Amino acid sequence: MFRHTKLLQCEAKPEKPDAAYARKLQELIGGAYGEMTVTMQYLFQGWNCRIEGKYKDLIMDTATEEIGHVEMLATMVARLLEGAPATATAEAVKDPVMAAVLGGMDPQQAIIAGGGALPNNSQGVPWNGGYIVASGNLLADFRANAAAEAQGRLQTARLYNMTDDPGVKEMLKFNLARDTVHQKQWLRAIEELEADGIEATPIAPNSLFEEEDQTHNNTIWHLSDGPDGARGGWSTGDDRIEYLQDPEPLGGPGTAPKPDPALYGTYATGQDLKGTAKGKAKQIKKDLT
Question: How many angstroms separate the CA atoms of 204 and 208, rounded?
């Protein structure tokens, strides 16, 4: 059960309207690393968490906080759009939608939202549920959470430097601080998961370690022109990872089989290559004769 409280977590009052900046701020709402993403990511992680107690409570606390962040940003966007598109540009343009475009505003904010925020990014692309990570494995999810908070803080920092409005900056200072502490909490929760013996690195399922190909679980393939990869700490020490300077391909040509004639794919008779089942059968027959 969720209960809405009318007071915002942090004040969201710009000093003056700014339709162009309102569009930029949409990225923090509906972008891939925006507040809608972490809100839904944490909610589904919490709902799917099979362990009652400190980890689930941490996830749900943070998820509920993020709902408030969406509301805070949506309020700021609406206030930044106050009077839009009634700007100096609009005086010379009779069509209010054209005025919105020329003024830097997302026309969808006027046409669809009536001068408010949208569940979109800064280019008007709708938020996508595919952005979220909720695997059911807490160690994998907490690492994704730390990365999401890092990307969110990076974008917030960039937007902080794109405005001189003291009211907007005050809210973004709060957002920056919360992104900082959320990174800390997920990193510490990762350490605690491992200390509690619940999960370990590499991430589960650890029951398959014996089944995996032992030849390839401790090597890095040098496949770029950059020569310095092998100089990293991962290539030193007792548990060093071997750096293969000239790795050999292990498979045959990546050739797809003959297409279904009803699909009209381009195909030349006699072109069955080694990688296909038919190609392998032909090779075996040839080897036996």
Answer: 8
